[in-house]
Amino acid sequence: MILKNGLVFTEEARFIPADVELRDGKIARVAAPGTLTGTDVLDVTGKYVTPGFVDIHIHGSKGSDFCDAGAEHIETMSAYLGSEGVTSFCGTTMAFDEPILTGIFRIAKPYINKETGGAVLRGINMEGPFFSKAKKGAQAEKYIVDPDIEMFERLYAAADGAIRLVDVAPELEGCIPFIEQASKKCVVSIAHTTANYQQAKAAFAAGASHVTHLFNAMPPFGHRDPGVVGAASDDAAHVEMISDGIHLHPAVVRSVFRWFGAGRVCLISDSMRAAGMPNGVYSLGGQTVYMADGKATLEDGTIAGSATCLAECFRRAVSFGVPLETALRAATINPAEAVGLFDTVGSITEGKRADVLVLDETLHPEKIFIGGVQTK
Predict the structure, then answer these.
(1) Which of 92, 55, 62, 57 lies closest to 77 in space, CA to CA?
(2) What integer pLDDT is reported at residue 39 of this predicted model?
(3) CA neighbours within 13 Å on the CB side: how many for 331?
(4) Residue 146 CB-density burial (10 A; 0-12 exposed, 13-18 middle, 19+ buried)
(5) Share of the chain above pLDDT 90, in %
(6) Is 43 a catalytic residue?
(7) Mean pLDDT score of the chain, rounded to an integer?
């Protein structure tokens, strides 16, 4: 397949006029516009040719959750995400005990990097249970424990090394030695925490490099008490942001990009099973969630993840005034880099996997290719 005359998003995070050839599941060639020829040609003049979106923090969608007992739920998520233009994702857990997490990981193992025709499960984001109970958000308090490196290593083995992210609250007892050991195996992210600036700095010094849903489930940034946000601005390689317009004000979304720069922000969905579903009653981590008009909350009003796909979070970021190239980088290049996937996905680059979108002027996908196979 040759995509001719498109505006192609490169790994330098800019658009260039170009032709793109997809062959044998790979991006075979990127060439000057109008120069590639073949028998299977699609004219995409005036369209954006972009990498598929990479969601490194997603719990569920379309009525299914990554933590549900059954492989069919991973397949449901994969199909829905693929239909929206998300082509790679990290299934994200909640705070559970070790036996429950072990069962989840064993179900997920056969699906890691498996071709299902939809988005490909690239690994596991272990969100919990090493959190502050004071900042638990929608996490179930009964499962929250202090960092336990032996537990983590058993779970890492149960997942055959597929854990790409593990979250931790830096103020907890045993956190620093936990980070020092866990960071040798995967990315360690600061999350669900009451940590102050010094505690967060110590976590980064020990090997943490990432922050989960910046501003949410952590102390607010203060000009004399900068907390995790201030430490992240100093030291984090990447920070996550939910740009659904519910978790953060649009002005904050714009400000984070100006503050952290285009290369350090990862847009995520943090979506739960209500994404892609009508208003109603759902569940997350064993707790009842009420979804109305795109907002998912517990009974007490606590926000319980999002009900918005990453593709829509990207579009909303642009609608908030984030430059198109910056928002697209944050939904493709940056998350792929953050979890070690950028050698295969995340940009339109020769030799990479052919996860490619053709976006129209509204930034919705007109055509979707997953592993070179056209699915829309």
Answers:
(1) 62
(2) 87
(3) 31
(4) middle
(5) 94
(6) no
(7) 96
